[in-house]
What does this fold into?
Amino acid sequence: MKDQIGGNQKRARFQALCQSLRPDLLRFAFWLSRDRALAEDVVQETMLRAWKAQDSLQDEAAAKPWFLTIIRREYARCFERKRFVTVDVDELVAREEPMLAAAEEQNLAEMRAALFKLPDEYREPLVLQVLMGFSTAEIARELDLSCGAVLTRLFRARKQLRVLCGEDTSMDPQE
Amino acid sequence: MMDCAQYRRSMLADPHDPDPHLREHRESCHDCTLYSERLLRFESRLERALRVDPVSETPSSSDNVVPLRGRSRTALRSPAYRKRMFAMAASVLMALVVAGGLWLSAPGTSLAADVVTHMREEPQAWRRTDLPVPDPKLENVLRDSHLRLGAGGGAGMVSYANSCGFRGHKVPHLVLQTEAGPVTVMVLVHERSPKPVQFDEQGYRGVIVPVPGHGSLAVLTRGSSTDIETIEHLAHRVLDSIVWTG
It folds into this structure.
């Protein structure tokens, strides 16, 4: 009986954890896939897998990287299962119009459009750093890269983003 | 000695990098100080742009942890998918019954739990940095709550300041770089707390202290390396530094 109560409490705690992380996971999946419907599918599958594997999460503090790893795998699986049509970035921006229109400022919409145009290998570490608060070492672990490679990608990501956003880059360093 | 190109390359890779060599260079180079300020403004815009609002960001009471909306039609037709969803729905239903029972026996969502949930939403605020928030930004954030920080800066340098939505009100959310590491402060002028509350949940440890006539103040740290007495001490230092203007 005591074990059952303990198990129930653990499940309830896990559910609360999922709820608290879900917005960030959706954001991460969105920036990974650049597609809201696909992001929701990926997060849904992630939650399903996480639910089944919840016993393997020993430390709640490690929940976020644990979920992100599942999301990245699930997103990769989408590519294994399905052949995606390529879309023009301008079309993509237009498709996300409702969300962009909701942005409080026009320059945020411009920044988001620029983020869409970044290559995946630059956008992903940038999202992990800025949105998820990961350190360079944590990003390196998550993406299976060296810290040096992560820093290079972050440098290139911001450099390209600044150009795309029409920032004054005259003081930016060369590679 | 670091040169300007090295400094700017490092800043572009991580604008909040607390490396003392970067600080040393910045303090000795006017151009790089300007560059950093511009880059941080850009970074702030980037942070806001990334925080898109997913449609179902705030699940309604009828939602559960596994979102049931947004499935593609082809996937919904798959028998394997339906079978999995049925199995999962049974598990989720059971969990909801349990969670419902726990919820009914609990006094309701506590202020501390809401503060912790909010912290999880803004992980970028916790970065260790030696860059202070520009004074005009800090003043803007504090002005709406009718307060300012007195001379001396209270418990530490303010490295993050944002006006955040919390329980239907805009409240100042600050991060102070203290000797105990980054400490978050939320000034909750609309939330009265009859007595001091200590909490330690979901990886956050902190206190909520009543502020007579001005609601309450939440002060918390991430992780368990800072003891609760130190956090209480920091909370009182912050309180002492607040000047109420209304």
In short: Chain B has a mean pLDDT of 76.
